[in-house]
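We modelled the chain as a single entity of 157 amino acids. Its sequence is:
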Amino acid sequence: MNLPVRGDAMPWYFKRAGVGKLIGKRTWGGLVGRAFPGLMDGGFVTAPGSAVFNPMTGQWEVENIGVAPDIEVELDPALVRQGKDPQLEKAIETVMAELEKNPLPSPNGPRTLTTTNSVSGCDITQLGPGTAGEGCRNAVKENEPEDFTSGCGASCL
């Protein structure tokens, strides 16, 4: 079995993929795979069996170096004891600033089509494209209980 240490792998994958900013402190620098040769008594020995090499830079990565954050924030134990998390607070501040600069597009919302059930006389409101089984709901009459599977003659999933 050859497994990498995942405490360094996730930040490395995250940073390498460029999906966001890493905030906190440098990781400890242990990203090697380990081999687990079994012994006759059922025990085992671990030894490094693989590491991460970047052919683009010609450098070994992470092992004995760690993954550096984009924004370094100390995790102060005194603040943690007070119920604060400076790294999380900085992450929220950073994400909110990014959203301010690059707002998400507003969704147009689903199309709505309302028809009347010829048997019961109830309105059936369908959200989005498709049929009654694909994202619709029954609009119940004002004084009826909110039971979307009876009264209007249709059930919607």
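As a brief sanity check on the tokenised model: Strands lie at 2-4, 23-24, 32-35, 47-54, 59-61, 71-72, 112-116, 123-127, 136-139. The chain has two domains: 2-72, 108-157.
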